[in-house]
Structures are given as structure tokens and as C-alpha cells.
Amino acid sequence: MEDRSVNNRVFAEALRHRLASQLPGVDAQSRMAPRPRLGADLGLDSASLRPAAALLLIYPHEDAWHVPLTVRGSALRHHTGQVSLPGGRLDAGESVEQAALREAHEEVGVLPSHVEVLGRLTPLPVFVSAHLLHPVVGFSQERPNFNLASHEVDRLLEVPLALLREPERVLWEERARLRPSDGVMQVPYFDLLDARVWGATAMVLAEFVALVEELGEVGLKRDTG
Fold first, then answer.
1. Torsion from C-alpha of 18, 11, 107, 173, nearest 10 degrees
2. Which one of 48, 88, 112, 221 has the minimum C-beta count within 10 Å?
3. In 114-133, which positions are buried (b, 16+ CB within 10 angstroms) versus exposed (e)?
4. Residue 5 and residue 148: Cα distance in Å, rounded?
5. Do 21 and 214 form a contact (C-beta atoms < 8 A)?
6. DSSP H helical segments within 54-125, as ranges?
7. Alpha-carbon distance 193 to 59, whole Å?
8. pLDDT band at 147; cut points 50, 70, 90
9. Domain boundaries, the chain
């Protein structure tokens, strides 16, 4: 167990160091952006968007690194049935990190005290819902004891990080545009665990994958000691 903790720490510190330097940014996000970008033509200024936060949590499970994603509940008003990172709007007086941890606790039962915040990815404008999403990268030494909020989350996807790095997981489909309501758009998505991960979530994951790939062997798999 001590050897595994040491190896976990190597990965965590490599991520922390990488997040503190120049990020892959918009170029990496754009690899998974719909064409044309959903809502990008609404004329909204990023400065007018409401701040939101999401937690991209890395944890070990079955000798591999995993990321938890949620299938949003059918009773929710926005993005029903879509796959998301745990997250939501900032409450008054909250920091981005506090909001990300709170939302992850409320949605999937992750205890904030068990998460080590490593840094942030590039903020992502989500024009269709008028939010500026701030992705927070967190690390847990152990797999969380997940407890889903049934009114918000229909299903939890525990996605191996290695799966996100497989090129064949990226596919494309044609979808009708919502705003404006005419025409179509070409949409890239991750094909993961019987789910299609697209839009803002896919764009955040694309930047994270680009960052992990820069780490080389450190980010490939969990060393079991």
C-alpha cells in the first residue's frame, strides 16, 4: 500500500506541476467542439456569462486511473440525459474550487475532505446556457464511496483514463441545431461505456487528455507497485 501511495503521489504532483504552467487551452478544447459551435453565434460576451464550476476527479480503481461522469437526471431543466462532469453554478461568496467540491458532494457523494485540488483547466464558455465553466482538477488516493443524488443523476460512468486516450473512441454524428433552430451541425463525441459524451464535457476532457499525454509514461497507467 505504501508503494502505491508513493506512485499515486508521483502522478498527482506531475499533474499539479503541469496545471500550473501554460495549458493546452482552446486549441485542445476545439478538437471536440461541434461545428458550428453550439450557441457561439448568439452574440454573447464571455464577460456576461454566469460562473459555473465542475470537478474533474482522478482516482485509482482496478489498477487504472478513472474519471467519474454523470448522466444527468430526466427531471432537470437543462441538458437532460446528457453526460456531464459533476458541477453547477457558484453560490454567493464561493470560490470556483469550493463550488466544484460542493457540487460533486451533492451530486455523487464525493467527500470534499477526500479530494486534493491540483489546479484548473482553461475556462470554457457554454453559450447555450450562458455560463462560463471553470473545470477544477481534483485527485483522490482511493475510489470514492459514490452516493448518487437520484433527482439529479440517473447513472454514474466510471471512465478509465486510458479509454479517453484511444483515438477510435472519438466519433462524429450529425445533429439538428437548437439555436438557431434550422440547419445541422457536425458533432464529435467520445463513445464511452454505452454513452456519447459531447459538447462542453467532451471539450473539457479533450484538454485534459492533451495535458496528460504531455506527461508521457506518468499518465499512461497507475503503477501498482
1. 70
2. 48
3. bbebbbbbbbbbbbbbebbb
4. 27
5. no
6. 96-108
7. 18
8. very high
9. 2-219
Mean pLDDT of 37-64: 83
3-state secondary structure of 142: coil
pLDDT tens for each residue of 178-213: 666 678 899 999 999 999 999 999 999 999 999 999
Q: What is the mean pLDDT of residues 146-170?
A: 95
CB-count exposure of residue 82 (10 Å: 0-12, 13-18, 19+): middle
216 contact partners, CB below 8 Å, separation of at least 6: none
Instruction: Choose the weakest-confidence range: 6-10, 137-141, 193-197, 209-213.
Output: 6-10
Backbone torsion region of residue 181, taken as left when φ is above 0, otherwise alpha when ψ lies between -120 and 50, otherwise beta:
alpha
Q: Alpha-carbon distance 201 to 161, whole Å?
A: 14
* Class in CATH terms, 2-219: alpha beta
Q: What is the pTM of this model?
A: 0.90
Please, which residues bridge with residue 116 across strands?
139
44 CB burial (10 A radius; 0-12, 13-18, 19+): middle
